[in-house]
Amino acid sequence: MLKKIVLASAMAMTAVSVRAGTTIEGTGSSFAYPIYKSWATEYYNATGNKVNYTPTGSGAGIKAISAREVDFGGSDKPLKPSTLKKKGLYQFPTVVGAIALAYNIPGVDRLRLSENALSGIVLGTIQYWDNPVIRKDNPGVKLPHKKVLFVHRSDKSGTTFAFTYYLSKMNSVWRSHFGAKKAVNWPMENHIGGKGNFGVSTAIKTNKYSIGYVDYADAVKNGLKMVEVEGRNGRFIKPELKAFQEAARFAVLDPKKDFYANIAYPRKGYPIVSVTFALIAKEKKDKNREVVKFVDFGFKNGDDNATKLGYVPLPAAVKEKVRAYWKEKGLY
Amino acid sequence: MEKIFARLSWLSATTLLLVLLATLYVLYIQAKPAMDEFGWQFVLDPRWGVDVVVDEAGNAVDGGHEEASGADSGGVVRLDMGDDEDAIPMEDETATGQPELAEGDLDGEAIDEEIPMEDETATGQDELAGEAQTSSIKVVYGGLVPIVGTVLSTLIAMAFAVPLAMGIAVFLSEISVDWLKTPVGVAIELLAAIPSIIYGMWGLFFFGPMVAHIFGGSSVSLLVAGLVLGVMVIPFMAALSRDAINTTPNVLKESAYAVGATRFEVVKDIIFPYARTGILGSIIISLGRALGETMAVAFVIGGVYKLAEHITDPTISIPVALANNFAESSGLSLASLYYLAFILFVVSFVIIFTAKEFLLRRSKY
Questions:
Q1: B328 Cα to chain A: minimum distance (Å)
Q2: Residues of B in Cβ contact (< 8 Å) with A63
Q3: Of A80, A139, A186, B263, whose Cβ has the fewest other Cβ atoms within 10 Å?
Q4: A64 and A194 share a domain?
Q5: Given CA atoms B348, B351, B354, B356 in this order, what sign does their dihedral have?
Q6: pLDDT over 70 at B96, yes or no
Q7: What percent helix, strand, coil does chain B show, rounded to 5?
Q8: Separation of alpha carbons B71 and B76, rounded Å
């Protein structure tokens, strides 16, 4: 009896694996999960090859690929070339994402925050919405005398990393005291945490006079009002695709350094942007070709999906650089 | 047959004990680095993931960064203590010859220095600190906030759930009409089978805002977490208490009624004393569940490492701290999480053991 069951299940397993073509396993960045999932669906429809990606977080992605548990790891945090060498990994960017500052102040439909105002809010020096620093950039807007409630992620996340990375580049006080981290002890007095982008969006929605950072895609999905943030050139920039694309054009991604860069706070365009990376193991030649095929498929056919999901496709020039990188490593 | 039966039951009991000991052992081993680093002070330290400046001898010079003024950063050299992983990529913008950047705009210089980042792979801290002439930064983890959060949210849950559950149990066994007993009883047992994440969603979307509306504060707080926990454990407590109450012999109740006792007096003086063991047992089981509940609480407690001054402030509990940080932690922060898990294990053990002891001692009378 037992033998029969074992035999049957073994047969079933081989049958499944024969039919399904190849399968790539990936894990890591939850920031990149929606786009990888959408690419994977189309890739499966087009080629019959499967891609399983589980959003476990960038740290877990780096760990898993370093231990060779998966075929590729997703990380929002690039690894240094020396680290890559030590761990025997290759690294390349896949897609650009943007983080929006969403807020909930009844009666205020348009809010502009300068760098000073944003720094004041995150450092806790600005406690009320009608602070002159905020009011200065919002003439004609009636800001209430209510406490600012800052909403942040309560779990460790790449989104927090990208946001604090931007803060570090923008504000030197933040840089010296907090830096870029996946979880921060926020200095302001009045703050709450939400679990996941979804938790933050909900907390902003259900709490008046709140402000928080979420993935642009989530902010759009939840119909949240978004802040126009002051860019590096002093202009106030609305979070929208055009502004992200402008920012992505300024991305400095160099194949010679394994694309080791983070693109937040560019010269022009929307300042809070970040690029997400894929990591592959050097010695897994065959699997790597599959991964490269999948990502290349995404580069070629997945731009619309990326845009729809609130991401920004890599500029064509960067895609070419990535392809050259693959060629150089003999994977393309 | 008899022998096999005895052997089997012995085996299952031993297996369970072994699993328990193995869990404890693994927790202890994994938590060891954090235990060595922080010692028992961990339990009393309200700081979590706070950078502290240490001098050569390894003593903390400065009480954490919240208090640290901008002036101290001049004399302090931040060491890149961990792996390369944690360094920040700083693109050399002028060197990469991008046409758009050829304007010679050099205002980027100031941001080209390294941004300090969390040190997750802190392994060789001591050696490095010894080598360094100047002071360095080390990260301190303390467990006080999650421990207090766990205990408080469980207490709120119990204060809310016990009276309600007792009311339901008494209603179901004594007061309700017969045809209502089965459907309501089944409904309560069904409630016990609802996954905790659903309670979390419900708390986040509906219950939290409602509580915030009534009591003030924000939609996620210690109070909301405690109440959601309470709602979660009510079905367990009510169903088990009802069964315990149902075991009261009718002879006892009828004799009481015969000598003129009112219904309230029967419940108070006959049923509760008789069913005390079962009722206390149901409370202990619910207590254990409330202590270890993760998912529902994670959504509604706020996830802030801060002692709650008011009941409507956000804070954090041990299981939530674990769930939020586990996937992305390594090195010392991971060990600290294991330390927290170990403490939860011990706390649960102590609470359940005392409750049991108390219960057994009392029920002898």
A1: 5
A2: 330
A3: A139
A4: no
A5: negative
A6: no
A7: 65, 5, 30
A8: 10
| Residue of B89, B96, B208 with shortest CB distance to A262 | B89
Residues 6+ apart with CB under 8 A from B63: B52
ipTM: 0.70
Reported as half-sphere exposure (CB side, CA atoms, 13 A), residue B318 has a value of 26
> A77 to chain B: which residues are within 8 Å by CB?
85
Which long-range contacts does B174-181 make (Cβ < 8 Å, 24+ apart)? B174/B245, B174/B263, B174/B266, B174/B267, B174/B271, B175/B263
A62 and A103 co-located in one domain: no
CATH of residue A33 = 3.40.190.10
Judgement on whether residues B228 and B299 belong to the same structural domain of the protein? yes
Give the β-pairing of A89-104 and A210-215.
antiparallel
How many domains does the structure of chain B reveal?
2
Distance CA(A295)–CA(A302), nearest Å, equals: 9
Residue A266 lies in a domain: no
- Residues in chain B within 8 Å Cβ distance of A153: 303
**Tokens for B93?**
């913008």
Task: State if pTM tops 0.80.
Answer: no
At A200, phi and psi to the nearest 5?
-65, -45
Asked if B74 is an interface residue toward chain A (Cβ–Cβ < 8 A), one would say no
In sequence order, the 6+-apart residues with CB closer than 8 A to the CB of A254 are: A260, A261, A321, B91, B96
Looking at the fold, whether B219 and B130 belong to one and the same domain comes out as: no
Q: What is the mean pLDDT of residues B236-252?
A: 91
Structural domain includes residue B74: no
- Judge whether A187 lies within some domain: yes
The values of phi and psi at residue A133, to 5°, are -65, -40
Q: Which residues contact B55 (CB under 8 A, 6 or more apart)?
A: B61, B135
Choose the mutation target among B218, B228, B320, B336 for the interface with A, i.e. most A CBs under 10 Å: B218
| pLDDT tens-digit map of B141-160 | 888 899 999 989 999 999 99
- Residue B228 in tokens: 């959601």
First-to-final CA distance of chain B: 39
Residues A55 and A128 placed together within one structural domain of the fold:
no
Of B65, B92, B314, the CB nearest to A192: B314
> What six digits make up the tokens of A28?
């890591």
- Closest CB to B219 among A155, A207, A262: A207
Cβ <8 Å between A178 and B323:
no
Q: Do the Cβ atoms of A165 and B96 come within 8 Å?
A: no
Contact A194 B220 (CB under 8 A): yes
Question: How many other β-carbons are positioned within 10 Å of the β-carbon of residue B250?
Answer: 7
Instruction: Among A253-262, B16-25, B66-75, B331-340, name the most confident range.
Output: B16-25
Residue B267 located in a structural domain: yes
Asked if the structure places residue B13 within a domain, the reply is no
